[in-house]
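User: Could you go from structure to sequence for me? I need the amino acid at each position, not a summary. C-alpha cells:
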C-alpha cells in the first residue's frame, strides 16, 4: 500500500513524466527527445547521436553532451550552466535567452545556431568552428575563442568584455559587437 501511495504521489507531482522523458533521452541513438520545462540534476548524453532534442525552459545542472552529434537542438530560455558540448558536432541550434554560463564548446563544430541574448559568460569556444552563428545581444564576457574559426558569425550588440579572441587578444571592457 505504501508503494502505491508513493507512486500516486509521484504521478501527481509529475515525477513520472521526468522519468519517461529521461528514459526517452538516453542511449546511443536518440530521436525526438522532449525535456521542455523539466528540471533534471544530471543528463549524460556524451557520445550520443541525437536527432531533435528540445530543452526549452529546462533546467539541467549537469549536462554532458561531449563528443555528440546533434541535428536540431532547441534550448530557448533553458538553464544549462557549465554544460559540456566539447568536440561535438551541432547542426541547427536555437538557444535564444538560454543560460550557458561556463559551457564548453571547445573543439565543437557548430553550424547554423541562434544564440540571441544568451548568457554565455566564461563559455569556452576554443578551437571551435562556428558557421552561421548569431550571438546578437549575447553576454560573452570572459568567453574564450582562442583558435576558433568564424564563418558568417554575427556579434551585433554582444558583450565581449574580457573575452579571449581567436588571435589571443583579450577584448577590452565594454567591447560591444566586436573585440576592441
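Assistant: Here is the amino acid at each position, in order:
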Amino acid at each position: 500500500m505504501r508503494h502505491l501511495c508513493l507512486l500516486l504521489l509521484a504521478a501527481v507531482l509529475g515525477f513520472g513524466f521526468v522519468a519517461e522523458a529521461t528514459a526517452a533521452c538516453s542511449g546511443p541513438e536518440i530521436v525526438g527527445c522532449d525535456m521542455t520545462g523539466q528540471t533534471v540534476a544530471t543528463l549524460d548524453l556524451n557520445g550520443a547521436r541525437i536527432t531533435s532534442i528540445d530543452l526549452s525552459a529546462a533546467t539541467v545542472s549537469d549536462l554532458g553532451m561531449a563528443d555528440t552529434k546533434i541535428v536540431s537542438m532547441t534550448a530557448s530560455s533553458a538553464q544549462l550552466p557549465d554544460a559540456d558540448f566539447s568536440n561535438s558536432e551541432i547542426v541547427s541550434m536555437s538557444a535564444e535567452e538560454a543560460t550557458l554560463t561556463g559551457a564548453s564548446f571547445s573543439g565543437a563544430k557548430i553550424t547554423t545556431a541562434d544564440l540571441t541574448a544568451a548568457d554565455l559568460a566564461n563559455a569556452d569556444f576554443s578551437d571551435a568552428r562556428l558557421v552561421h552563428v548569431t550571438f546578437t545581444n549575447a553576454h560573452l564576457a570572459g568567453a574564450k575563442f582562442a583558435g576558433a574559426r568564424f564563418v558568417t558569425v554575427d556579434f551585433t550588440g554582444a558583450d565581449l568584455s574580457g573575452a579571449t579572441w581567436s588571435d589571443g587578444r583579450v577584448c577590452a571592457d565594454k567591447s560591444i559587437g566586436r573585440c576592441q
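One structural detail worth keeping in mind: The radius of gyration is 18 Å.
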